[in-house]
Automatic annotation (TrEMBL):
Catalytic reaction(s) noted: 4-imidazolone-5-propanoate + H2O = N-formimidoyl-L-glutamate
Top enzyme category: hydrolase
The species this protein was found in: Molothrus ater (Brown-headed cowbird)
Protein name, per record: Probable imidazolonepropionase
One of the GO biological process terms: L-histidine catabolic process to glutamate and formate
UniProt-listed Pfam families: Amidohydro_1
Stored PANTHER family: IMIDAZOLONEPROPIONASE (PTHR42752), IMIDAZOLONEPROPIONASE-RELATED (PTHR42752:SF1)
NCBIfam families reported for this sequence: hutI
Entry GO CC: cytoplasm
Residue ranges constituting the Amidohydrolase-related domain according to the UniProt record: 81-424
UniProt cross-references to Gene3D superfamilies, sorted A to Z: Metal-dependent hydrolases (3.20.20.140), Urease, subunit C, domain 1 (2.30.40.10)
Family: Belongs to the metallo-dependent hydrolases superfamily. HutI family.
EC number(s) from the headed UniProt entry: 3.5.2.7
């Protein structure tokens, strides 16, 4: 009987238990994203293996597990329990901040003007190449810790500020070490095609990636030294054109990497059409996506990872979230954390998605949980509170979950606990009690 087994954690009597999904859906789109699964006066049990064992009404759970020995019980009366948030797009490994460029942007300089003047990605590449692997790891661990305290329990982490093979491998090794040393979940992405290295043409850089970088990645992956999940390319005018992008992505797919790339950000490139054709798992940005690209992504079940912080900070046109949702695209969200868009907080990302991209709060939460997990190929284990999934949860000190989005910048006072695999990783003792009005 379940009641005689040992279990790791019981969260009991939550005012709201936001399951997000209730029928093992791999993603939510259209009406599914507007009607989230939710229970009131409910409890959840996490087993010793870190997976969810039961979800249901508090009295039923108490009766079923009345004889259980729990390592920890948390009374969630008056509080809400949600899945851990999933950040589907970040660049958290680098050295040398770019606060000086923020002033340039405020004065009117465009992203590409800064890039062509030797700033932007190239500035970060210069500093990242000089940093040691230990220095990169220390910075990464600190940033991941801030993401965790803001509610993210699974984060996509890209390389891409090395550009040459040695520096890219240094970044990927730092990500691999972080995977083993921090509690937050990591999906690792090789993004060697983030910019064209100085002294090379785009064609030369493409050939180098296909002939040198990817074979080495395959070798290290097979030996178990580095685990890479995704391949990324910055498909953009003046960076990697459509044909170069196609070649790199296909070569990455051929060694078993999921395609998850930057597309249609600053110029319409037909990246969405290309991604749908290649069977991409996800495409990010999409501020300049075509109507045909939206339809193609919906048909291909290719997730759109929208980045409202980037559009906000770079003063770009907002992605067409409403049109994508109406056409049946699987819409996910990411922070795009990087030196150019310095935001650790998925609650703030959700708020911006609602205000600037006209998403509903339900749609934003689906995009930051189950759909973001789908974009990383992880929705079978993450993104909702269902039996068998990993026990990654948030407890917020409010009787309505919407406060996590409604209170812009308020997550530091709202998030009471962050739990990974049923273990309390962060407990906020200063958490304020919030009323529901």
């Amino acid at each position: 009987m379940a009641g005689r087994q040992r279990h790791r954690l019981l969260l009991e009597n939550a005012e709201q238990l936001v399951l997000v999904c209730g029928r093992r859906e791999p993603y939510l789109r259209r009406d599914g994203a507007t009607r989230l699964a939710l229970l009131r006066a409910a409890s959840v049990v996490v087993g010793l293996d870190g997976c969810i064992k039961a979800v249901g009404q508090a009295d039923v759970i108490r009766n079923e597990f009345s004889e259980a020995t729990f390592e920890r019980i948390i009374d969630c009366s008056g509080k809400c329990v949600l899945p851990g948030l999933v950040d589907a797009h970040t660049h958290p490994v680098w050295a040398g901040d770019r606060v000086h460029e923020f002033a340039m942007k405020l004065a009117g300089a465009s992203y590409m003007e800064i890039h062509q003047a030797g700033g932007g990605i190239h500035f970060t590449v210069e500093h990242t190449r000089k940093a040691t692997e230990d220095e990169l790891l220390a910075g990464l661990q600190q940033r991941l810790g801030r993401m965790l305290r803001a509610g993210s329990t699974l984060v996509e982490c890209k390389s891409g500020y090395g550009l040459d093979l040695d520096a890219e491998l240094k970044m990927l090794r730092a990500i691999e070490r972080a995977r083993k040393s921090v509690d937050i979940g990591i999906s690792s992405t090789y993004c060697g095609a983030h910019a064209v290295p100085k002294g090379k043409t785009a064609t030369e850089a493409t050939d180098d990636i296909i002939n040198n970088h990817l074979p080495k990645l395959k070798e290290l992956k097979l030996s178990g030294e580095i685990h890479v999940n995704n391949i990324d390319v910055f498909c953009e005018k003046g960076v990697f054109d459509l044909e170069s992008t196609r070649r790199i992505l296909q070569a990455g797919k051929d060694i078993g990497l999921q395609i998850n790339f930057h597309g249609d950000e600053l110029h319409p490139m037909k990246s969405a059409e290309l991604g749908a054709e290649l069977g991409a798992r996800a495409i990010s940005h999409l501020e300049e996506v075509s109507d045909e690209g939206i339809v193609a992504m919906a048909r291909a079940k290719c997730a759109a990872v929208l980045l409202p912080t980037t559009a906000y900070m770079l003063r770009l046109k907002q992605p067409q979230a409403r049109k994508m949702l109406e056409e049946g695209v699987i819409v996910a969200l990411g922070s795009d954390f990087n030196p150019n868009a310095y935001c650790f907080s998925m609650p703030m990302v959700m708020h911006l998605a609602c205000v600037n991209m006209k998403m509903s709060m339900n749609e934003a939460l689906a995009a930051a949980t189950i759909n973001a997990a789908y974009a990383l190929g992880k929705s079978d284990t993450h993104g909702s509170l269902e039996v068998g999934k990993q026990g990654d949860l948030l407890i917020i000190n409010s009787s309505r979950w919407e406060h996590l989005i409604y209170q812009f910048g308020g997550h530091e006072a709202l998030i009471n606990y962050v739990i990974v695999k049923g273990k309390v990783i962060y407990e906020n003792e200063r958490c304020e009690t919030m009323s529901s009005y």
